[in-house]
Amino acid sequence: MYEGKWKIICLENFAELLKALGVNVILRKIIVAVAFKPTGEIKQEDDSFYIKTSTTVRISEINFKIGEEFEEQTADGRRWKSLVKWESENKMVCEQRRLKGEVSWETRELTNDGELILTMTADGVVCTSVYI
Predict the structure, then answer these.
(1) Which residues touch 72 (CB under 8 Å, ≥6 apart)?
(2) How far is CA 97 from CA 12, 29, 76, in A?
(3) Which residues contact 29 (CB under 8 A, 6 or more apart)?
(4) Where in the numbering of this chain does the Lipocalin/cytosolic fatty-acid binding domain appear (predicted)?
(5) Collapsed DSSP state (helix, strand, coil) of residue 122
């Protein structure tokens, strides 16, 4: 089960991912400066999720149900249509579509060691973060 409070212990390739997503250089620097210490909270009831991510300057919250499209907003204000599906019992995949047709992917996977691995992919760039 994904429910709980999560603390990041590793973040790789984040600035490159933001660049691939088209985030401008000034905003990228600000986001990277505060993103290395985010905390997360996940609440889960069956296939319904609430995810809250907190940094020193911003809190983002999303609510969604597996298999139902929803709208979310990125840290830099871009709006996406997202759809989350189960890939396996411990892994969910989120396809995010921007109105301009750009696509990015996120997966969240629980490991047997109790870690939560978030992998984000856009335009061939892969960013991985590990939470405990």
Answers:
(1) 62, 79, 80, 82, 96
(2) 23, 24, 15
(3) none
(4) 4-131
(5) strand
**Per-residue pLDDT reduced to its tens digit, 44-93:** 999 999 999 888 777 889 999 999 999 988 766 778 899 999 999 999 99
How far apart are the C-alpha atoms of 103 and 82, rounded to whole Å? 10
Amino acid symbol at 83: L
In the block, residue with structure tokens 């990277």: 32
User: Mean pLDDT over all residues of the chain?
Assistant: 89
pLDDT confidence bin for 38, thresholds 50/70/90: confident
Count of other CB atoms within 10 angstroms of residue 18: 25
> What structural domains and CATH numbers belong to the chain?
4-131 (2.40.128.20)
Tell me, what amino acid is at 132?
I
Please tell me whether residue 80 adopts helix, strand or coil conformation. Answer: strand
If one compares 93 and 123, the residue with the highest pLDDT of the two is 93
